[in-house]
Amino acid sequence: MADKEYTGVGGYIEHHLINNKLQLVEGSEFWTIHLDSVIYSLFLAVIFLWTFRRVAKKATAGVPGKMQNFIEMIVGFVNDQVKDSFKGKSKLVAPLALTIFVWIWLMNFMDLIPVDLIPAAGQQVGINYMKIVPTTDLNITFGLAIGVMLLVFYYSIAVKTPLGYLKELFTHPFASNNMLAQIAVAPFNLLLNIVETLAKPISLALRLFGNLYSGELIFLLIAVFTLDMAMKELVTTFTGPLMATVQLMLTFIWLVFHILIITLQAYIFMMLSLVYLDMAHQVHDDEH
After folding, report:
1. Is residue 1 in some structural domain?
2. d(CA 213, CA 211)
3. Quick check: is 53 catalytic?
4. Is residue 3 part of a domain?
5. Active site residue 85
6. Is 203 a catalytic residue?
7. Residue tagged active-site, from 69, 79, 176, 203
8. Is there a domain that residue 2 lies in?
């Protein structure tokens, strides 16, 4: 992409919100790959798999180490959530929930790295645009949500049979023992189910994206706090260190609060995925 000169506080923020893009078709935004989002998400996936595999290979029944304790705590926590939320029978759901929770948490965690640290290093080797938080990219959050929904469709058809799933679309949520009444409400049931089906991935993707994007934006606003003062020539020998101290305090406060946000968003995405998968395994009495 052609480089654009960004000046001032607004330019600084805008520059940090642009992905490193690879256009497969010139002039088409649709056929574009966000290289930074793809690379960082895959890199964090490898870190996740390597760490858990390494701990599993070295796991001992004796006195466990700190890392084994930590991993077992995460696995136990996710397993408890699966038992409470998922009533179906599938060996895939628990590992999927663990993957969703840890992978999204790792992608969210990138938001806690100083906003200029890695992008500045990239600029030294000619990479002018770099967003290091994959979950601030709608392509990534929608990709995750669509992946979950594909599994929901698969289990809905596999558990209920294609005919049973199609019947559910026309007979729920409003069901009636009267044939004429059921035929009358069938179009409304279909419409509601279509809206619900579309709303699930959209809400999953936008909730995660919105929270992480706003979090990154706040870090950027804190970062330019002293820069803005300097540009207005308000920083003196006395106020310069004071402004830097205020900036550090604001960063620390938001950092502590943001740790809760990134964990909560990973947990919410995992729990909603479990709920949707559980609904896909539910067979209504009139579908037997």
Report:
1. no
2. 6
3. no
4. no
5. no
6. yes
7. 203
8. no
| pLDDT one-digit tens code per residue, 118-143 | 888 888 888 888 999 999 999 999 99
Residue 224, domain member (yes or no)? yes
211-249: pLDDT as tens digits: 999 998 888 888 776 555 544 544 444 455 666 677 678
Domain carrying residue 175: 8-287
Into how many domains does the chain fold?
A: 1
Q: How many whole angstroms separate alpha carbon 82 and alpha carbon 275?
A: 9
pLDDT single digits (tens) 6-40 = 666 677 788 888 899 988 888 777 789 999 999 99
Exactly one of 178, 211, 214, 273 is catalytic; name it: 211
Query: What is the overall mean pLDDT for the chain?
Result: 87
